[in-house]
Structure formats: C-alpha cells, structure tokens
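Hello,

Our lab assistant flagged a job as stuck in the queue for most of the afternoon. It eventually completed. Since we weren't sure the result was trustworthy after the delay, we are filing this so someone can double-check. Below is the sequence as submitted and the structure that was eventually returned. Let us know if re-running is recommended.
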Amino acid sequence: MLHETIARLIPLFLALFVMMLGNGLYGSLVGLRATLEGFSASVTGVVLACFHLGAISGAWYAPVLIRRMSHLTVLRLTLATLGAVVLLHGLLVHPIAWGGLRIVGGFAMFATGVAAESWIQLSCGNAIRGRVFGAYLAIEFSALGMGQFMLEAADPTSDAIFLWAGIPFVLALLPLSLSRPPIPAAAEFVEHPALDVGDAPPSVAELFRSSPTGFIAAGLSGALYSILFGMGTVYALGVGLPNEAIAWFIALMFMGGGLGNWPMGRLSDLRGRGPVLRWSAWGAVALAGLGGILPEPAAALPALYLIAFLLGWLILPQYGIGVSMINDRLTPSRRVAAQSRLLTALAVCAMSGPMLAGPTLDQLGPGAWFGLIALCNGLIALTASFSHPPMEKPAPRAADDVDGSAPAV
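-- returned structure --
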C-alpha cells in the first residue's frame, strides 16, 4: 500500500521538487537583491512581508479554486503564475512593484500548497500518512536546501539570476502532464464520528479542538520556519560568520529536515504522532540551549553546523506530523478545507515570527535567536505533554482509508 501510494504520487513529487529548487533560490534572492538595489532595511522588510499577505489569502481561497476547477488545474495555474512573478522581478525593479509581485507570489505559492498537500492527504490512509507526508516534506526541504547554492549560477546583480529562479517553476509543469484530472467522489468514510458533520468545512476552532497538539505544531511551524531561515541569516551575521559559512549554516538546517522527515514520519505512524511531537520538541529545546551557550560560534563552526543540522531534523518534520494528526480525524470531503485553514494558520504565524524575532534580537543580541526557537518548541512540547486527544496513534485501515476523489496519476 505504501509503495503503491508513493508510486502514484511520483509525478506530483517530481513537480514539487523542481518547483522548490526555484523557490529556494527565489526566497534567498529577493532580500539579497533588494539590498543590492539600495532598498532600505525597513522597505525590504515590508516587501518581504507582502508575501505573507498573499499567502494568507491564497491559503484561504484555494478550496474555492479547487472546487471550481480541480487539484491538477489549480497546480498548473499557480505554477505558471509563479514563473511569471519571479521573472517580472528582473523587469520591474521598484519596491512598490516588488511588493505587489510578492503578494501575487504568496497567493500562488500557498494555493499550490493547499492543492498539493490536500491531494497527498486524500491519497493515503492513516496507517501510512506520516511516511507519505514525510516523503513530501523531505523532497521539499531537500530542494530548498539545494536551491541555496543556485545563487552561484549568475551574478546576483544581473537580471539573468531571475531567469535561473523562474525557469524551474515553468519546468515543474512538465511532470504534471503525466496526471489525469480527479475522479468524481465514489464514497466517503468516517474515522472519528465526533467530527462527522457532513461536508461542512471545519472551522479553526473545530480543528483546534480535534487535536490541540496537531494544530499548535502546524501553526507554530510557520513561526519556526521564518525564525530559522528568515532570521537565521541575521543571527549568523551577528555572530560574525563569513558568507560561505552562512550559506552552509542555512543549508544544513534544510538538509536536516530533508533527511529527518521520512524517519520521523515513519516513527509517528508506528509510535503515535503525539509522543513523536513531544520528543522532537523537547529535543529541539535542549539543542537550542546548547546553541545559546556556545561561547564563540564563529570559532566553533563544526559544533554550530551539527546543531543546525539536528535542529532541522527535529523541527522541520513537526508541521507534517501535526497536519497528519488532524487529518487522521477528518473525513476525506473535509480535508481540502482543513488544509486551507492549517496553511492559513502557518502563514499568519510565519508573518508574526520576524515581527517578534527582529526586536528581540535588537534588544538581546543574536543569541536570543536560540531562545526564540526554544520558546516555540517549548509551547509545542507542553501542549503535547498535557493534551491527550483520542487516537494519538493512528489506527490502520484498509482501502476505505483513501478518498475516491483523490487525483490519480
């Protein structure tokens, strides 16, 4: 069942891998190029934050697009839009233009996320959900990490660099040509009767009640992503790391997530999602404590690199495990709307992460970066320790685990 599901999703995974190569470059390029173009730090911050405004609306509105079209059509539409948005950055070099492009890009990126992640959730059952979603996140973070090194492909001050960032979004359309549109729903099933309210979209409050641990982990993952990768560069610069070391520092966190998602997802399938979230969060708190007491990080690069890799291994799978925890409790017809709500929560937290981290690092110094990581993971760990929703360990099910409307390949 696991191998059949993965094989069925290979074209989707390949498309997402190629897309994330471009996104890894694009995510690092915008802030760098804005600085090189002479944008002030405050203006650059506003331009970067515009992405999250689009992300919130994209995550919220995506179910409407999927209902009107299909998962596959939405993916094709958003990938084409993202390619155009990235390429236009090289033609319209102005803060207002870039802010508008970031809003459109955020909308398209998170609509892509809802379509892809709900497709995956509809294609697998509870017994293998952690591994399948872990495979998806492993592919995503591996590609994002590899995309960091594409900055060497061209001069960051040239327009050609935006071609390198935009082309992968267009190439990602090719694997999806192997897919056919979704089959109309044939049947539905109920795994947790307490949440069976027909086809009504689940509210945010209902998702939280179904699994407080899963919801907190999924939401706070947004803050952790922005702290790790958005403010990680600020920390690295603050402690005096050279440019090459900064690139490796960020890339190693991506690599840790890329390698850790599959085994952590597998562990959550076998041992229960709640306990795995609890262990990973407490482990991240301990690692952040070790990082915070490093006397001279720039002079202890091997130790800092190891901490960065292990933080990625423990933290980056938390979103997938939290999302799986909630989807274990939903009927298939409600998973698209649920994924929309969860990605909206992630986007809101991702927008708030730099707002909290920036002033904190200004006031307390770069070492506070590890403190913020410990704070977020402490909240996840405490929630997982004191919240006991039913069915922490997903019950294996047979073929009725998979929705008949899932897009087939």
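-- support follow-up --
The delay was a queue issue, not a problem with the job. The result is valid. Residues 197-394 form a domain with the Growth Hormone; Chain: A; fold (CATH 1.20.1250.20). The chain has two domains: 1-178, 197-394.
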